[in-house]
Every structure is written in structure tokens, then in C-alpha cells.
Amino acid sequence: MTAISHEAALKRAEERRLAEAAKTALTPSRQKYHFMPQQGWMNDPNGLIYFRGQYHFFYQYNPYGAFWDAMHWGHAVSDDLLHWRYLPVALAPSEPYDDHPKGGCFSGSAIEHEGKLYLLYTGSTDEGHGTVQAQCLAVSEDGVHFIKAAENPVITAPEPYSHEAFRDPKLLRHNGLFYAVCGHGEGGRGRALLFSSPDLRRWRFVNVLAQSRGEWGGMWECPDLFPLGERYVLTFSPMNAGDRKAVYFVGDMDWERGVFEPQTQGELDWGFDFYAAQTFADAQGRRVMAAWANEWQWMPWFKGWGPTWRDGWCGFLNALREVRLNEDNTLSLSPVRELQALRTAAMTLTPLLDGDRVAVFETPDPMAFDIDACVDLEKTTAERIVFHLRQGEGRETLITLDLRRGRLTMNRDNADAYSEGELSCPLPLKGASRLPLRILSDVCSVETFALDGRVCMSGNIYAGAAQNRHSVEAVGGAVVWESFAAWGM
Ligand code: FRU
Questions:
Q1: Could you confirm whether 282 is annotated as catalytic?
Q2: Within 10 A of 300 (CB to CB), how many other CB atoms are there?
Q3: How many angstroms does the Cα of residue 489 sit away from the middle of ligand 1?
Q4: Cα–ligand 1 centroid distance for 167 (angstroms)
Q5: What is the pLDDT of residues 185-194, one digit of tens each?
Q6: Greatest Cα-to-Cα distance within the chain, rounded to the nearest angstrom
Q7: Nearest to 204 by CA among 183, 225, 177, 185
Q8: Is it the case that residue 96 has pLDDT exceeding 60?
Q9: Which residue, among 203, 193, 188, has the nearest Cα to 168 in the 3D structure?
Q10: What would the pLDDT profile of 359-407 be if each residue is shown by its tens digit?
């Protein structure tokens, strides 16, 4: 097949995108300030890059329906990480190596080279002998139209590794060479494989970057490797690793051998909906992370992708997070500061919430809001603080901070007619005199950031316009707020 057929596949996808976009744009289920597709289905963020003065985001995309199917790459640009302009579909399945109904142009990443924008993605196909995944290149002169390279696939699975679960290349540069970190899984063991290239076209297998004995899942999806401060960070989404679905390791890179040496480990987000994270560095030198706010069928709490398919769309990204390295080699993820520009009128709470009392608060927009608060732990005597969010008609979503046991819990059993589940994680308060807290709510999501982003928990809910009240409860004592403000968004 030739590039013409790619053009034809793109044209067809474009027609569908444009035909449905206006209708889907009006549905009330849409997120207000989280990145999402115009219509159709999206999953992983792909090819995030700051290129020629703009943020370019690509994403796993099916323009033909609100469910996962043959994967395309959607594309949008932004000047400020808040307002997005959708661009033509960037990649569509069209070649023998990426054209399959249950395959397509799978996840990957972007890099700038000699003024051009390069995408490295996984071509996933099946010619009748099982899944074959290999890494493929596409190039753009203008940052909008992409041509698949004639050499494709440019990276195939090296002996003795299987080509069945070999995907999601993440590009980076080091010492004048390009590197690609690819996810791999075989025999119940997930790993990341490292490749190098002088020109993005000719690749050499370097080494197994990292692997485990299976305790970190059977396949590492969407690995990312990036420098942060003096260290390197490896992140990935392990398949079938119990409650784990987005993890990080902080350590050092041995570039001689092509091996990552991990030292500390943690969860990027402890919630239900945070997967396939990818980072990029922007012009300000920040490391920004995006992730898909949804779940796959094999996750323990999976119960469908939510009801928004009825409105012709499904999938969005979590709030973008800036990644910071703490002194103890753990990570903190905080919502990017750009989000503050969306805040409308604030509502503040009085500093003291007496024991066993509930304070009701309103936000200018009852669904899309931003709470920024801080608990004075020295003066607070409460055992627990419970946020009752999106209340109405007997429904509510609960975020509980257990100060005595040091735990954060999200319960969405009664959030709406659809969601369910409770997840809980450690909230390390020992020695802390204050507990900074941020809660971002949008039409279909609640994201909690505790201790300046050391502990994050994200979950989707599908509460409606009737769930428009909020309160916070002090249990077993009084809560003293150092500050408490809630803004509409
Ligand atoms: C992760 C993932 C990737 C794959 C893509 C397919 O969510 O399974 O491993 O490339 O989604 O859409």
C-alpha cells in the first residue's frame, strides 16, 4: 500500500469527525476543563510535545464510535494547556503493518528533529498468525500532516522477545542519540526494552531497560523514561498487577549498559481512573504529565467506561500535572498552575469547623470546581474529615481523610446510578503540621491531591445536574482550616 491509502483513510476519518463534532459538542455530559475528543472514543495521550511555540497533544482515537476500535491518532493544539483547537486526524490505519480492526496505530510519542515533527507509534496488526506489534515512524513538515516512513516498521521485536505484546515507544534524546523505550510482556513478565538510533530511522536494540519477576505485572504499557533533577524516572502502566495501574520508579540511568537502576517506587495515582501516563518537557523546563482517565476490562474495579457513549463520546485526560522530585526520591504531582486562570468567584469557609459538625459550601458551578484548602493539623482534633461532594437526590461522592489512621479514601458507591467502588491509600501524616489539599471536580470526575500532590487519587463519577450541593464534615473533634477556598471552573 502507499501513502495515498493513508490519505484516503484520513479523509474518511475526517469526514466522520467533522460530521459529528457539532452535535457532540452540545451534550451536557462533556467535561468543562479536561482535555477530551470532539466526538468518538479516546484513550491514551500520545505524542505530547511543545513544538514551534504550541502544545501538541495526540491521542488514541476512534472517530467511528464511542468505543475502542481500530486506532487512529487524534490531534489538538493549545497555547495555554487550557483551550484546545482540534486539528485533522494525524494517523489512520492504512498499511499492512498497522491496519487491523482490533489493532491500528497504537500509542507512541513525538520528537522534533531538524525542524520536523516525528511520531513513533506502534503498528498493531494480525495477518492470521496472531498479533504482530512493531514500531513505526511518521514525519510532518508542518506539524499537521503526517507521512508514514517508507522504512516502516523501523523497530521490530529483537530475538528472543516475542512481537505480540511489544508497544508504546517513548522517545528521548541523550548524548546526541535518540532512544526509544518500548513496553513488552511475555510469560507473565512485564519489561521495558531500550533501543537507540542516530536518525530515528535506523534502530539498534540496546538492552532490557528494566524488568521484574512478574510482581510488576505481565505487560508494561506506555513506559516513560525522563530525567528529573539529578535522577531518572521510569513510569509505566502494568497489566494485571492487582490494584496497581500507574507506577513510578526513581533511580539512575546507566547509559553504558542501557539499564535503569531503580531506588524508590510509588504510585502516580491511587484512584480508579489514571492510566497510560505520558510526560513532556515544555519551554519553561517543566515536566508535565497527562494520563487517560478511565479503565480497562482487566482492572479489578472495572464496570464499563461510563454512560457518555450515549452522547457520542467517551474518554478524557486527567487534569495535567506537573511532576516534581522530592528530597526523599518520591514524586509529587500537582495540577498545572494554568488551571488557576479558569477559577471564577471564590467561596471561603470560616476557619473553625466544630467537632461533629457539617459545613455546607456552594461553588459557582456546582459540577466544575476547584477546592484549595489546608488543614492546621496542630490545632485540629478531628479524627476524620469527610467531604460529601456532588450531593442531591440521595446521591453523594465521599472523600475521606482519616487523620488518625493516615488514610485517604474515595467512595463512589452512591455517586450516581452507574459508578461503584471504594479505594483507599496511605496518607503519610507523621510529623506533618499541616495538610494541604486540592480537589478538582468536573462534570464526570473528582481528583484529590493531598500533601501538595504526594498522594493523588482520581475517579470518574457520572452524577448529574441534580447533584449540586457539597459539604464537609468533622468527625470526632474539630477541624481548624489554615485556609479553605472553593472556586467555580
Ligand atoms: C494502553 C494501551 C496501549 C496501546 C493502546 C491501544 O491503554 O493498551 O498499550 O498502545 O492502549 O489503544
A1: no
A2: 12
A3: 31
A4: 8
A5: 999 999 999 9
A6: 71
A7: 177
A8: yes
A9: 193
A10: 888 788 899 999 999 999 999 999 999 999 999 999 999 999 999 999 9
